[in-house]
Write a structure and sequence with these properties.
mainly alpha, Catalytic domain of cyclic nucleotide phosphodiesterase 4b2b, 12 helices, binds 8-bromo-adenosine-5'-monophosphate, binds zinc ion
Length: about 270
């Protein structure tokens, strides 16, 4: 966890939270049984959850691309951060024998594990969210759907991606704290974009973003469709799925409050 920076949101606590949520979906929601995961699969999911934002600079892919950052140049603007996080982790592992958990694996096992972890971290790129979710939904509905066979990796990808956006399925008290953190980070980016004369990214303008409205949209367009898909093979997540409507109703009640807050902080 050392390489996680002290960002408001993308910190080691977020990584631990995602790894813990993955563990919950694996064990309490029985994905281990449903997908017939072996020890290696389980380790891969937990490692992917723990490393999925490793070294996150607290800036989005869009910012890195627009500001012509070194990382965007390295990864040709494609899933810049999601390429960077596992790349850093594997480099660290192979650069230091003491921490290399892969060292004693046979060639083919290592190749399989490395591929699986990289696929899961790449699945956390929100740019691929809608297209991948559509494919996963159609696989779950297909007559030849095999959660413990040819569809297993796709479902493992969804376990990590859904855990990454699972805050709105938790209690409102916890969810609200994560929301404040993610927006604090976005607003620091927006301040940088303003200073650099770059376009201010979606949700990154502290003077115009209504926190409650943003969360209603996030629940409706991202989190609810994601967990509706998860319920298709993990019905035990249902009680948490129900939190989405409860939490959305709470944000709806707060929209007016945030409107007034915004009106009081308008720049002169
Ligand atoms: P990452 O953690 O991989 O960045 O993916 C989660 C993304 O979902 C955030 O970067 C942000 O774009 C969006 N998001 C929003 Br909007 N509200 C969020 C919230 N309350 N918790 C987590 N992510 C949120
Ligand atoms: Zn994340």
């Amino acid at each position: 966890m050392k390489g996680y920076l002290d960002n408001p949101y993308h910190s080691k606590v977020h990584a631990q939270d995602v790894a813990q949520t993955c563990n919950f979906l694996l064990s309490k929601c029985k994905f281990i049984e449903i997908g017939q995961l072996d020890e290696q699969d389980i380790a891969c999911v937990l490692i992917a959850g723990a490393i999925h934002d490793y070294g996150h600079p607290g800036l989005t892919n869009a910012f890195l691309i627009n500001s012509r950052n070194e990382l965007a140049l390295t990864y040709n603007d494609q899933s810049v951060l999601e390429m960077y996080h596992p790349s850093q982790c594997f480099k660290i592992a192979w650069g230091n024998q003491k921490v290399n958990i892969f060292e004693n694996l046979q060639f083919h096992k290592y190749r399989r594990i490395r591929e699986s972890i990289i696929l899961m971290v790449l699945s956390t790129d929100m740019a691929h969210h809608a297209s991948e979710l559509a494919i996963t939904n159609s696989r779950i509905a297909a007559p030849d759907f095999e959660p413990n066979g040819k569809d297993k990796q796709r479902l493992m990808d969804l376990i990590v991606h859904s855990s990454d956006v699972s805050n709105p399925t938790k209690s409102f008290e916890i969810y609200k704290q994560w929301t404040e953190k993610v927006l604090a980070e976005f607003w620091l980016q927006g301040d940088k974009e303003r200073d650099l004369g770059l376009p201010i990214s979606y949700l990154c303008n502290r003077f115009t973003t209504n926190t409650a409205e943003a969360q209603v949209g996030f629940i409706d367009y991202v989190v609810k469709p994601t967990f509706a898909c998860v319920l298709g093979f993990l019905p035990a997540y249902e009680p948490f799925f129900q939190n989405l409507d409860k939490n959305k109703a709470k944000w709806q009640e707060l929209i007016e409050y945030y409107k007034q807050q915004l009106a009081s902080i308008q720049p002169k």
